[in-house]
């Protein structure tokens, strides 16, 4: 066993140099089992999916001699030798210790060695495939989705994990097929790819580097660098030669021309949005070459001949993004795409011109986590080819005659000629932007987290209510103080619950395909409703049971309870445009309430208070007389998901101000809380307690992938 463990550790050490590579080995650590292939740490009754940092650290412990790591080794292998704080190291160890303690609280697993580092202090044994139990596989029955309470869910999760692992070791071929259809690519070690060398760090600053663009020969790099509230636009020539171009926070994005002589950037603030052009040799001679909209995340990219550019923009947040082409010599504009909102709610995501300048690739987001890939002729902008990809790609560039796509932390290669989508590399963090020069792939990655804060309005004091290294959002509180929220702790959106004075736990997985949902408590505080894939669902907290209240064909979007619990007000496009409808829970009858638009509404004493999808303002409709009036004129559309009406008070968010309170009886309008730092527009108010989401500081760097044998 000692010899087999040494061989396994050596094999694991080879794979641990590259994030997320699959091994054919599991390890017994004390009373627990670690599966590097699925990133799961398991006890006899519970399984945890390890967060990336905890997974990487445990991988290093297993590969290390005598299970011992110094702090210098951790810095070198976890952070690629970059300067990090003591707190960052301590946090990594703490995350792994927390996972061990949750599964086996009676045993220590990581020992601190003063002035040395840390050691894995439990017995480590390699588990061979022959030792792994194979459970019988039966055909699953088709059932309605009824998640069990938290404790039962943990046990079920452990059983399913064991069943899946048994199948994995008994039949590797089935696992390969399963993995292929999930990722649309072979597992990394089974794919012949030139990008299996370690990525080369290009930037080294603290904080995050993003929005990179390169010259055609790769010698000059432009990118943003941000730390805390400081934001810089940097030009990098060579490895260490940096030039500061701007520290203006109004510059939202920028791009370097392929000839490395020109800069385009977007200056964006509430007063306006412009695209400015200038020569690097004459930065003082800036010229406005296009106008854009303030209500958009504008993107731009150069033509490869450096004579024009492409701009992604939208009229307002109710419209999908479209793509336009601009010529610098004539300043002529030509809109080249016009996605319909019904076909593509978001519109154009990303775009890139081929190296020869003859083709333009465009990614367009579709519903149900699909992406439409379009290839246009760069002269006529006629669609030459198109393909629906069963994944949500977010970035694109050309890799020779093929296309390089990013999906989360994965880099994929797609060929129209063979209709093959292949895995290339796992970056470890989400890819924010990428560029390719002579088969060398540059990418900027990032990692985000978000915490839920609780602000006591009576004492004006705030504290973290929910904190983790993942994204926790959409807080919803009932009158008892129970907090429901969405979390991505297990790599997907799930509904979690933190009862008063208790720890949070997983309440339920979301049904259907991955997508954003909005939660709301019932008036009695016993259940939650949410819309998903057009249907309206109700989740009973005590049992964990989910049921459909309104079928998908009704196209439910935003749903709110009537205060007495007798029904639900919801928005739908079933009559053409967004209108509000009422569901009577006693009779199951539905009634259309608005005819001039409605998106999120509450019913109180015969009065409907509501917002509209395409129009700012909060409106009041008397259901008896049919008279409609504007109640709050400067009510911004950004309040679609979070504004609420409770006990005669309307709570809403006003950009550049904060969260406001409007009293229906007195019409007094006051500011409750100025916009918190890094505020995410998810909030809820109950019993003088304001819950809101605050994003953490993003982390990210720029790397270069060089084909094996290529120049670095």
From TrEMBL:
One of its GO terms (molecular function) is DNA binding. The chain crosses the membrane at residues 163-181. Keywords: DNA-binding, Membrane, Transmembrane, Transmembrane helix. Residues 24-122 form the OmpR/PhoB-type domain. It comes from the Bacteria. Residues 24-122 bind DNA. PANTHER family: PROTEIN TOLB, PROTEIN TOLB HOMOLOG. This is DNA-binding winged helix-turn-helix (WHTH) protein/Tol biopolymer transport system component.
